[in-house]
Amino acid sequence: MFPLVTITLFLPLVGAVLVLLSRSAPARVAHTIALITSALTLGGALWMWSRGVQAGGFSQLEHFTWMPSIGAAYRVGVDGISLPLVLLTALLFLLTFIYSTKLKQRAHAFVVLALLLETASIGVFTALDAILFYVFFELSLVSMYFMIAGWGHEDRRRAALMFFLYTLLGSLPLLLAILGLYLGSTPHTFDMRTWIAHPPLAGTAAMLAMIAMLITFAVKTPVFPLHTWLPAAHVQAPAAGSVLLAGVMLKFGTYGLIRFALQMTPVAFHDAAVVVLIFGVFSAIYGAFAALGQTDLKRLIAYTSINHMGYIIAAVAIASLALNPRLRALALDGAVLQMISHGLVTGALFFLVGMLQDRTDTRELGKLGGLLRVVPVLGWSFVIAAFASLGLPGLAHFPAEFQIFLATLRVEPGAVVMIIGIVITAGLYLKAIGQAFLGETPAQWRGLRDLRTSELLTIGPLLILTVLVGIAPAWLLNVIHLTTMALQP
Amino acid sequence: MNLIAPIILAPLAAAAVILLLRRASTVFALAGVVASLLSSAGLLMAVMHGSSYQVIMPGLPGMPLLLLAGRLTAVLAVVVAGIGALVFVYAIGYMKEDAEKVRFFALLSFFVAAMQTLVLAGDWLLFLSAWELIGFSSYLLIGFWFQRPGVGASASRAFLYTRTADLGLYVAVFLLVAQHADTAIATTLAGNNPTTVLAGLLLLIAAMGKSAQTPLHDWLQRAMVGPTPVSALLHSATLVAAGAILMIRVVPVLPPEARLAVGLVGGVTTVVTGLIALAEADLKRMLAASTSSQYGLMLVAVGAGVPLAALLHLIAHAAIKSSLFLGAGVFQHSREDTAFTNLRGVGRDHAWVFSGFVVAALALAGIPPLSGFFSKDAVIGAALAAEHAYLLAPLALAGTLLTGAYMARALRILWRGDTHAGHVVGLRWMGAGIAGVVLLAAVLGATFGALEEWLGAALPTTILAQVSGLSAALIGLALGWLVPAPRLFGPLYRWAQQGFTIAGGIDALIVRPVLFIARLCARFELSLYTGVLAIGRLGMTIARAARCGDEQGIDRAIFALAHGSRRLGARVAALQDGLVHHELALAVIGTALMLAALLAGVLYF
Predict the structure, then answer these.
(1) Domain span at residue B532?
(2) Could you read off the pLDDT of B496-553 as tens digits, one per residue?
(3) Could you give the number of structural domains in chain B?
(4) Which residues contact A79 (CB under 8 A, 6 or more apart)?
(5) pLDDT for B244-263, tens place per residue?
(6) Do B146 and A438 touch (CB under 8 A)?
(7) Contact yes or no for B431/B425 (Cβ under 8 A)
(8) Domain ranges of chain A
(9) Domain contains B372
(10) Which residue of chain B has the CA closest to A482?
């Protein structure tokens, strides 16, 4: 069969090599290569989407022998949980490259790093071999570190280092867990499908492995109290970096939580699910409150990510606690859809803040004001994205959060207190809109330019998809549902 | 052909076309709402002849979206589109000189589409969506003149109040859906399966937010910063009506305790906001307080278990209140203000508009044969016949009396005083809109008998209800006309003007603590961040110390070790002297040591 997944996965890497080879060419060439490769990658992802997934298990499998002696192989494939994430990743990278075409400063290096990150990200979602997964997982870290350190704002070095150390230390437990799962499986293998079909560990060993995985993914997602790297990294990262960080890389945490912790150590996860649930609920509420207290627009959006990802953590815990398979599917449908929605909406918001900062050189809410009159397209885009983020029906977050809350109420009614998060986020976005966009326009902001074509092309698809997912989520949910319905308890 | 779809799609399409073409906004908007009106009228006819319509759309897995036309919903759809169309006609004149007509009419059309979705929704998912979307569109409409100071804050307040209360609807919907494993409203409300008291109270909270019931009434008065047609629409058949519509729909399954709570909330609101209206110094804010008060009366009827009375009052009030607001808009354009002090005598300047205003005011007070008389009579009759009549009836009568009082006071202020007419642009369109709604406000009562019969519910009207209601209205009108408001209130006047705020109101009791927690979290975040950085710095310090240590200590130690090994090597060489017994002895000792270590390990573990 035509190795579509592999080609899609390594296309960006090929692009990166091409850019390296044309190092002496002008920046325009590098950007063109990036645009073409990422567009082709999106084409590949769409093709993968058209092939679809089957109910239960993985589809579009591709397999090459790699290290047979230790049971590691190159294995890739997708299911209803990873396929939407692959599509989201490919889309966000293409938009990032469109947005970054204006970048002149060390453009080659930036493009290479971003393309490398794209392969790593798609790799994380498609890898079905634990070693392969871990390699991609760590590779993404390196590219993001350099992206923040090289193209970030004032305090970028410190933020980049913090991000790197946090997530590096965070991923060590995952390595231990992978080794544990490997040693527990007979015959020894790194095949994730085998681990999912027959969870290799039981008892204390499973619990320890599960805790190790929880730590890794809690740092990545992030969950309170392991989240401190996120606001720092987001605020200092360049807009493109923030979009990729929030839109794609945070999903590694929640995806890993489902793929590893929930699927490979299901019994241990079920035993600890109440604790996970508490962390998720607390994170959701805490993230909302912390966001409300911010005065820096970018930091504010970063904190809402903690809120939105908290819902996903809670939903995965609810899925583990649910005994009825329909309820489990309901919670997981919500969790996976929430990942996609968050990628679209928060991606749009970070792009918009980047565009705002390009024009005003500030992110302080107190200094902005009355901008809706001056830059109406930017302003209305922000209003739509903000209302999507606060969960307005008809926009992307609502169907996801509705499912999550409904499943929560039916499985663990007390945890539904996290619903106050939607009021707090409403308050903080209205405050931000009021301060930055409404009211009289201060003299210094008159004469700002509204969005350029490249910026419109960046933001347009995200907003259209936000509405599309909000009004008719069926096209996504049907794919997700195929897998979540067949998930083993 | 299915008649449901165009009711929603026509105004929605109008909004889209207006945004895309950016011209002829008034034409498209009017066409959209008239198409909605015609198809809802057609739907009503069809439903009358016994057909039923429904549309099923894909929603979430296992939760399809449902549009459903029953008798109640068909009537409501006609009311929404009818009032909407007349307000649109008026708005053509009112917004004649506004630069942002495109945005205005697109939003207004979207708003009508959202409201029609709410009315026709047959499942909770769609109902909740429409419920939130009308909140969103009213945020945008209230904040229409967003550059003006304070407008953004008022719009945010409206959205936040209603969204906070919406949590009640969210959780109640989850409870209902969980109980019945189905999202269809009909299923969850079917048969003799009363919902829990908790679900009933949660629904009440949601309705209180939308219908601006005490203590959540204050956002509505502040929402007056929006354009007047918006106020007219919000207060009559749309946003505020959503709360009452919700209550009317769910009342059959409310347990008695929840029903009593609904009645009491309505009763208290009708009195409290009636008093606020009486003390108010601004015409539009007075009308807003009056809206809360009238919706309080509807909830009294719901609490008394007679949703039909609430429905009749909702319909009558929709026509009356839009008449009043539209009239107020003309006065506002004439004097560039809505404060009573600047509106003295404005009624004489615009005698025709004022006569319409008077008709509507008398209708609201409940004077026969105007529509308000019949609906208010039904509400009071319901309260008198209720199980808890001793609680509900006095409140309903007090609300009726206050209605007469504040309307009479307003009429007197508008009539007495100097005339100096300002030029009003677009008066012809505005006049046409006003004439339409005033006509409805006057004659709608004639249709109530037929409506009653058709919806198959009887109203418990008695002579007692009619006499007491009418006398309360007349006493109220007399009081309001003859006695100045400060004297009516005595020492309470100032407090009433402040909206009977207790301990700083919602701001002090909820908003400020929430912001305080938020600031606390933000500060905690900052210290957490500094803490992590400090750990990082500590790590760096240790690393630096380690490097020094490496260079001076460990390196030296390693060199020393190397030196030592060499010397040891020389000595070992001396040991291995080729003598077999020496080497054998060493091997034995070594093996013994290893065995001992192993044994110790085994024993220990």
Answers:
(1) 509-604
(2) 777 777 666 677 777 788 888 888 888 888 888 788 778 777 877 887 777 777 667 6
(3) 1
(4) A53, A57, A58, A59, A483
(5) 999 988 888 888 888 899 99
(6) yes
(7) no
(8) 1-264, 275-489
(9) no
(10) B61
